[in-house]
Amino acid sequence: CLLILHDWSSAINLADKEIDKERGVIREEWRSRNSGMLRIMTDAQPTLYPDSKYADCMPIGSIDVINNFPYQDIRDYYAKWYRTDLQGIIIVGDINVDEIEAKLKKVFADVKAPVNPAERIYYPVADNQEPLIYIGTDKEVKNPSVNIFFKQDATPDSMKNTIAYYATNYMVSMAMNMLNNRLNELAQTANPPFTSAGAGYGEFFLAKTKDATSLYVAANKTEELPSALAAAYRELLRAARGGFTVTEFERTKAELLSRAETSYNNRDSRENRTYVNLYVNNFLDNKPIPSKEEEYQVYQQIAQMIPLEAINATVQQMITEDNRVVMALMPDNAENKYPTEEQFAEALKSVDGEEIEAYKEELKSEPLIPTMPAKGSIVSETKSEQWDATVWTLSNGATVIIKPTKFKEDQILFSANALNGTAKFSDDYANSLTFLPIALQSYGLGTYTDSDLQKYLSGKQASVRPGFSNYSRSMSGFSTPKDLPTLMELIYMSFTDMNFTEDEFKALQSQYAALIHNQESNPQYIFNEKIIKSLYSSPRIQQLSASVIEGAQRAQINEIVKEMTKNAADFTFTFIGNVDTETLRPLVEQFIASLPGDAATANKTLGKIDPQFDMNGGDKTDTYTAEMQTPQTL
Q1: Rounded CA gap, 55 and 46, in Å?
Q2: DSSP single-letter state for residue 297
Q3: Over the stretch 75-103, which tens digit does the pLDDT of each residue have?
Q4: 3-state DSSP call for residue 150?
Q5: Please, which residues have CB within 8 angstroms of residue 139's CB and are 6 or more apart in sequence?
Q6: How far apart are the C-alpha atoms of 544 and 519, rounded to whole Å?
């Protein structure tokens, strides 16, 4: 490995024949990546970076240059820029440091330092007073979306190893988390103004010299993009003008501190790649690399020192009146009609002139489980020699397996598995069953909607996700030892009262129907659709399409979920990680042994296999064609 690094550093041959072979490799890379999105991004650069080096500098370069540059040009480039003062070697793993350092010095002894090296320039990005607006269209773009950026000067490298840098990152993270929670909540209403929206902060595309606050918005239809942008921008201004609430602030602070605590508790089980990434970011961008102990201590101090008023002031600074850039990306349409630059500019100007009410938050105060169930019991306990695990049989017929491990100090993994699944339902449920995996990403428990649950779980590291297929059923999740009681609450409610509210279900259908509808002309989507039709004949095995999504029924999905979870005796529950058996025992009796279950009717063996779900037999070759701007074969 060291020898390879040595040769990359200073001794690549760059023979004519090898250069020409590599031209072909890069041509194919360019062709395979030249999707609608890449074409638009390439076309957008002169607008995003007017009169700038970045105006024509996509990382893969120009295909004309790749095809035609003289051999000597690449040799000169290599000699100019592949040099010791710009190189760093990072080695992490099960090594003897002194031995590897000695080998490194020996292998690299003949690599010479540069004489009069060329200056490495980080080119600036100019400010702009009026918004820069770009509108791009391509028939292979999947869905209409628009981004607005508020450019700001990047943090100087000299400031990054300071408490101020950590404090700024904390305030930005807090603001972006709270803003995204508001946007997600709005997207889950019955008639959302956009299908999805999200805010972030980071480098302004290709340039390290400018950062940007960004707001991404997707819409159902191309003509709805200006109003969708206005709706999301209104939430941005609502936060900047009215600030965040105390409850939002406390909840988000608890969540960030909880994540930091989990990271700290698992500090001794970090993988090598984690260290490598830290060192690379330090070498390239001067980002600090304190120990986990130092980082956690600083984070706790900052969280206690910084008040809500400072977060609100930070948001105001991030939303500037100048340095705005708007980029809209849309699928081609037959009418060749698209929103104009004037419409996007007017959408922003109109919202700027509005009187915007401060945010009013609705919080549920009742417990997740309204009435605690009567406890069940553990009727037998055995030891599994095969797994070195404890096995409990519960009074309701369920089985629980506990395997304590110390791989990660702050992690407990959970799963519940049962045989037999949705194959029992008729073809009348086909659309609902196809949409089911999407629906299971956003559901409520009891009187709590999905949005309510996200608030309830802030500051708690616990999650449960169900999955149902033709011949199996599962629940899987995780928690920390501290949040194990919350995990148990989620397990109980997921089995007894999972629900899909009408508003959130409609919002989910609307979001995915728009997304899929615009993908239906995408070559990759067409390819996957044709594969499924070639391999299977059952109407139950189908590509997710807009018509399937619109045909899914909330009542059917509620019925499917209740049928899949009605008998806890079908399931084997497994807990693995830093779990204490005696701590878990009363929680299992309260939340799992109390689940409805009947051992006499338990379904512990695999039922009849339905041949309609089998792949078609025989030998067959199907070839499909689709018109593409840059031809590719899949």
Answers
A1: 4
A2: H
A3: 999 999 999 999 999 999 999 999 999 99
A4: strand
A5: 36, 331, 332, 521, 629
A6: 11
Q: How far apart are CA 412 and CA 403, in angstroms?
A: 10
Q: Residue 577: which region, alpha, beta or left (left: phi > 0; alpha: psi -120 to 50)?
A: left
Angle (CA) 6 7 12, round 5°: 155
When pLDDT is cut at 50, 70 and 90, the band that residue 13 belongs to is very high
In whole angstroms, give the CA distance from residue 500 to residue 557.
8
Place of tokens 């292998």: 107
List residues bridging with 133 in a β-sheet. 326
Copy the structure tokens of residue 105. 């010095």
Count CB-CB contacts under 10 A for residue 405. 13
- How many other C-beta atoms lie within 10 A of the C-beta of residue 10? 17
Phi first, then psi, for residue 362 (nearest 5°) are -105, 125
39 vs 432: CA distance, rounded Å: 36
- Which amino acid, one-letter code, is at 474? S
The DSSP symbol for 609 reads P
C-alpha dihedral over 456, 467, 604, 486, to 10 degrees?
Answer: -10
Pull the structure tokens for residue 511.
């979001």
Q: Report whether 151 contacts 325 (CB < 8 A).
A: yes
Nearest to 457 by CA among 500, 487, 492, 481: 487
d(CA 537, CA 616): 7
- The residues with which 479 forms a beta bridge, in sequence order, are 412, 462
The model carries a pTM of 0.85
**Rounded to whole angstroms, how far apart are CA atoms 511 and 191?**
10
CB burial class (10 A; 0-12, 13-18, 19+) of residue 605? exposed
Residue 448 per-residue DSSP state: B
Distances (CA, A) of 418 to 129, 300, 318, 439, 511: 61, 42, 50, 20, 31
Give yes or no for a contact between 184 and 451, defined as CB atoms under 8 angstroms apart: yes
Strands (E), 522-580: 572-577
pLDDT tier at 442, thresholds 50, 70, 90: confident
